[in-house]
Amino acid sequence: MRVSDIFIPAVITFILLAGVVKEVDIAQEFMLGAKENLVTVFEILPSLILLMTAVGMFSASGAVDLIAGILSPMTQFLGFPKECVGLAVIRPMSGSGALCTLEDTLSKVSPDSYAGRVASVIMGSTETTIYTISVYFSAIKQRAYAAVFAGACFADLCGFVFSALIVRLYF
Amino acid sequence: MLGLITAVLCILSVPSAIVFSKTSELSKAAIESCSDAVQLAVCLAGTMALWGGLMRIAQKAGITAAFEKLLSPLTHKLFKECDGETMKNISMNLTANMLGISNAATPLGIAAVKGMSRSGGRYTKRNIAMLTVLNTASIQLIPTTVGALRARYGAESPFDITLPVLAVSLISAVGGCMMVYAVSLRGRKRCG
Fold first, then answer.
1. Does A8 touch chain B (CB under 8 A)?
2. Which end of chain B is more exposed for a tag (fewer CB within 10 A), N or C?
3. HSE-CB for B84 with a 13 A CA cutoff
4. Residue A121 belongs to a domain
5. Where do the domains of chain B lie?
6. Domain count of chain A?
7. B185: Cβ–Cβ under 8 A, 6 or more apart, which residues?
8. What is the pLDDT along chain B (192 residues), one digit of tens a residue?
9. Is A79 domain-assigned?
10. How many other CB atoms sit within 10 Å of the CB of residue B119?
């Protein structure tokens, strides 16, 4: 048994136990909370369809390799491993796409190599940025503005650069 | 901006598919990924409803208030003029992110940004941007998915990347927050 396997059930048990102790109307409150989130999911669905279609087309077309090829002279100059450029391109857009790319990278280079470690750190320390922005802003029915994109893109850029840097320093 | 990004992705994919002779894959992807989105939403609906219900119980039992208090030194610095309910949602969102339960984190984050946009005020835009950026920085105590994948491909100690992952996500979160500060400061000056 691993600790991570028992973690989610433990959280659920803890919450329900606290509910019982504090005499919360568990069934009633659960239904209210669940209903609210169901409504939210269907509110964000239209923008999810648009985004996922675009990302799906983009990944299927091989454009990732094209962009990685264009970026590679610059990344090589900065000492960023060439195996990780494709991952950095797809990571902000598609979580499943990034996971496939990471799997592909780890099957080609050793997970304990420099490139393998940088790829792992990139995957763990960044998120599907575009997807997250899309979800939050379609939920409040607003257009995302400059501060959001500047902050999120800068955070991603920091993530990529420092993944390469910190792996080099740490190992 | 988001619409522009999706448009650029679609438009870029056509010539690139022609160059790499992947046009059949492209048309297949266009038709299939829209259904994938619905499938994803159906899966999300289950877990998000589960966590929504549980979080509501946690809120009534006073658990969220405890986490709000715990994180308040940080959250009160980053988020200005938010009501109590929103602060609780922010705290739980950040906690769920740290524990790696993203399906619980997303609805909490949505509830928080909804609260922010309802209340209005001077700092609304900055607050929403700040929470979005913190969520895109993925601050996670233990990178379970990546660790499992590294184990499968024969890493000697799959979780030896835990500290670097945490360090990098903290750096990128701080960088992103500073950028949000800088851009909203400039925006306010321009407005007068």
1. yes
2. C
3. 5
4. yes
5. 33-191
6. 1
7. none
8. 788 888 999 999 999 999 888 899 999 999 999 898 999 889 889 988 999 999 999 999 999 999 999 999 999 999 988 888 899 999 999 999 998 888 889 999 999 999 999 988 889 999 999 999 999 987 888 888 899 999 999 999 999 999 999 999 999 999 999 999 999 888 766 554
9. yes
10. 15
Residue B112 one-letter amino acid: A
Token pair 């929470």: residue: B131
Alpha helical stretches, state H, A61-113: 63-78, 85-90, 95-108
Q: B119 vs chain A: nearest CA distance in angstroms?
A: 12
Residue for token digits 């184990």?
B151
Q: pLDDT tens digits for A21-57? A: 999 999 999 999 999 999 989 888 998 899 999 999 9
Range of the domain at A67: 40-170
- Closest by Cβ to A111, choosing from B10, B106, B150: B150
A12 touches chain B (CB under 8 A): yes
